[in-house]
């Protein structure tokens, strides 16, 4: 049995391991593969949060994985996926496994995770056609055919024998680097990448030993596995994360996927299978493999269970398993041996510790917003929509320390920014009061959650309300805060989180004739019969309003000045909207800006032009809906500024450096004043919550 050396945190991890062994919870039972005993059944599967620096998993990358190891996860699988070859340039910021310098960085990560009791693996890949030729070294994209992948648009070179030979060697060399880093094993990626481009008849048009029959199409995989096994020995664990059914006409189906599963098991080269289902060559396909909010939880779990039942082989699985109950069922039912809660751990890295401590109600819920993955597919780093400490572990705390001095904190507003401010201030040990004009908390999240497909978003609010209740935060609803109200509370700190209101006065004529997306989503104004939506924000609100209007039976046209519609919604979140809106026959018109609206024979005449030239169009409609973000609701803030000690000012250098705010411009001012979220400017939920965390954590 593998033993880890010298725990750094014996006060946390040794009791954790002992309690895990004694527990009857299926999730907390150990599991052994070969020599390696995993301390429980919960893993984070390989994923690339895009935190590397120059392709190396440096301090932030290490801190991200160590946070989850410290909190009890059995196995943290890094990289999704690490590139083995130079002609597999990452399309986002992946680990570069083809560089020798990666060994030192991965060894630091592995050693520290081991010290906290977690096993560590990595996922290796060659992207094949799932990348672009104009990245990194500008080498041709390669694949077993010339067929382009829709998502990344590169036409690949059809591989030659020398391409195959060198890439096999690249895999083997990369595996040796992973062993040198002290890792417990690795898995090869085979869904949507080069390996299963060989498997699929849709993407393999090679002749001879690597094309044709299934056995020939699998040859590339087994050549790699044999090479790796010879290089790393028998104790280093090897697995394959693969699609067992492409779910594409002409692709390999579940029957062939089962054959693949048996071939992998029977080869004697593989120690575990990691099964998914579907294809990722389009945004829609990717979203079905990795579902988002409003889509079914654990959609491929039964399929993974069928593979495990048929092969009797160690089986891992992850795909929208967002909560402990689903994960527990996956293990208790025997469908899989290890269950991945990967996005859930981005939301709350301390899931396992909270299970052990019987605090499941304190687990911050993954709401399936998919802000994390959508950001990386647009070239950004992965951030959780409502845990801004994820991906910022070197600067932001997941657990809030107590303050040295208790203060009275007054928060105005109970949207996501206000509630986060109240929660963090409560964790700091302050006396916290929240004033809210509405009769319930939530702010704009309440509007979002009116969409049945996005109702999980209310978890952002419900969790914070529960935490605030635990911390003794006082709430006053139906309370309109004015300066006298604030002063009556005698606060030491006032945080204005009043949000904003829709900004619709954006036309050169006819602003009084339009309504806002909020009017439609809330139901305050009924949809017309022929509706034009002018979307100059590109966010969810326009699409959500369009869906409400179109479902009423109206015709809908969305006009945007952008070159593509809804750019702020991003790829995977766009998929469910498009499935709905295309079915409802909504029309999209890009590169046009609505300029004027006027009454015409009892209806409305909308005229729009273009930023690109002197062209105009006109529409006769019953209703014009404008989506142009919000304007801050900031009257109270400006009324309080002259009364405050800091005049509302923020020292940005200290804020960024994680230091307390100490500006004093008015020594007679009895309180510090800050504003956060949309009360500053229209942004998004993550920005609002991040505003609150990084300000209040140092109060």
Description:
This protein is 33% helix and 18% strand. It has 23 helices and 27 strands. The strands form seven sheets. It has an eight-stranded parallel barrel with strand order 3-4-5-8-9-10-11-12, surrounded by six helices. A five-stranded parallel β-sheet has the order 15-14-13-16-27. Helix 2 links the parallel strand 3 and strand 4 (75-83). Helix 14 packs parallel to helix 23 (685-696). The chain is globular. The model is unreliable at 1-20 (pLDDT under 50).
Concise description?
With 699 residues, this protein is α/β, with parallel strands linked by helices. The chain is built from 23 helices and 27 strands.
Distance between the termini: 47 Å
- The radius of gyration computed from the alpha-carbon positions, rounded to a whole number of angstroms, is 27 Å
Major sheet strand order: 3-4-5-8-9-10-11-12
Most strands sheet: 8 strands, parallel, barrel
Number of helices: 23
Oligomerization: single chain
Number of strands: 27
Write down the overall geometry.
globular
Residues in helices, as a percent range: 25-40%
Low-confidence residue ranges: 1-20
Which structural class fits the helix and strand makeup? Answer: alpha/beta
- What share of the residues does DSSP label as strand, in percent? 15-25%
Q: Averaged pLDDT, please?
A: 95
List keywords for this structure.
single chain; 699 residues; alpha/beta; 8-stranded parallel barrel; 5-stranded parallel sheet; 33% helix; globular; disordered N terminus
């Amino acid at each position: 049995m593998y033993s880890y050396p010298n725990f750094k945190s014996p006060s946390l991890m040794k009791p954790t391991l002992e309690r895990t062994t004694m527990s009857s919870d299926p999730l907390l039972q150990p599991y052994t593969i070969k020599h390696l005993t995993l301390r429980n059944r919960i893993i984070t599967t390989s994923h690339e949060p895009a935190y590397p620096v120059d392709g190396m998993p440096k301090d932030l990358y290490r801190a991200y994985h160590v946070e989850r190891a410290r909190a009890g996860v059995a196995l943290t699988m890094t990289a999704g996926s690490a590139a083995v070859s130079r002609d597999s340039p990452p399309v986002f910021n992946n680990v570069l496994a083809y560089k020798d310098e990666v060994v030192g960085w991965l060894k630091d990560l592995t050693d520290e995770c081991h010290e906290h009791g977690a096993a560590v693996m990595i996922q290796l890949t060659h992207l094949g056609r799932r990348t672009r030729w104009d990245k990194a070294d500008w080498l041709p994209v390669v694949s077993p055919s010339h067929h382009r992948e829709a998502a990344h648009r590169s036409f690949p070179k059809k591989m030659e024998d020398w391409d195959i030979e060198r890439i096999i060697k690249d895999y083997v060399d990369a595996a040796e680097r992973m062993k040198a880093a002290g890792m417990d094993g690795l898995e090869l990626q085979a869904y949507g990448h080069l390996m299963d481009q060989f498997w699929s008849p849709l993407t393999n048009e090679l002749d001879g030993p690597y094309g044709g029959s299934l056995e020939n199409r699998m040859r590339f995989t087994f050549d790699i596995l044999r090479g790796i096994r010879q290089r790393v020995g028998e104790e280093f664990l090897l697995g394959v994360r693969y699609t067992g059914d492409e779910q594409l006409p002409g692709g390999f189906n579940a029957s062939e996927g089962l054959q693949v599963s048996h071939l992998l098991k029977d080869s004697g080269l593989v120690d575990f299978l990691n099964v998914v289902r579907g294809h990722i060559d389009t945004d829609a396909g990717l979203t079905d493999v990795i579902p988002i909010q409003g889509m079914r939880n654990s959609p491929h779990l039964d399929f993974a269970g069928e593979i495990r039942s048929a092969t009797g082989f160690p089986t891992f699985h992850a795909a929208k398993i967002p909560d402990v109950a689903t994960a527990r069922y996956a293990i208790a039912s025997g469908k899989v041996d290890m269950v991945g809660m990967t996005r859930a751990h981005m939301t709350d890295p301390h899931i396992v510790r909270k299970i052990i401590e019987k605090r499941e109600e304190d687990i911050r819920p993954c709401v399936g917003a998919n802000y994390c993955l959508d950001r990386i597919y647009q070239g950004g780093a992965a951030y959780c929509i409502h845990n801004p400490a994820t991906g910022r572990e070197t600067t932001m705390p997941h657990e809030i320390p107590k303050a040295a001095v208790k203060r009275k904190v007054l928060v105005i507003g109970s949207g996501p920014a206000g509630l986060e401010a109240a929660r963090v201030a409560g964790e700091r040990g302050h006396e916290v009061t929240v004033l809210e004009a509405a009769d319930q908390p939530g702010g704009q999240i309440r509007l979002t959650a009116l969409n049945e497909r996005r109702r999980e978003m209310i978890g952002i609010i419900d969790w914070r309300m529960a935490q605030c209740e635990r911390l003794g935060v006082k709430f006053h609803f139906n309370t309109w805060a004015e300066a006298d109200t604030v002063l009556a509370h005698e606060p030491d700190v006032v945080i204005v989180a009043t949000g904003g209101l829709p900004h619709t006065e954006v036309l050169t004529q006819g602003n009084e004739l339009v309504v806002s997306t909020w009017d439609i989503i809330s139901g305050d104004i009924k949809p017309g019969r022929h509706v034009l939506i002018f979307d100059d924000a590109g966010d969810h609100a326009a699409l959500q309003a369009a869906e409400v209007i179109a479902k009423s039976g109206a015709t809908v046209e969305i006009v945007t000045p952008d070159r593509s519609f809804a750019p702020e919604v991003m790829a995977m979140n766009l998929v469910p909207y498009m499935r709905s809106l295309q079915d409802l026959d909504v029309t999209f018109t890009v590169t046009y800006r609505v300029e004027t609206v006027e009454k015409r024979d009892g209806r409305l005449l909308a005229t729009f032009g273009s930023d690109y030239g002197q062209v105009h169009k006109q529409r006769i409609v019953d209703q014009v809906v404008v989506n142009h973000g919000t304007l801050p609701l900031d009257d109270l803030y400006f009324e309080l500024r002259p009364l405050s000690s800091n005049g509302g000012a923020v020292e940005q250098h200290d804020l960024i450096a994680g230091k307390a705010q100490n500006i004093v411009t008015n020594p007679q001012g009895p309180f510090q004043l800050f504003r956060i979220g949309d009360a500053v400017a229209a942004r998004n939920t993550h920005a609002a919550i991040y505003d609150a965390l990084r300000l209040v954590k140092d109060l």
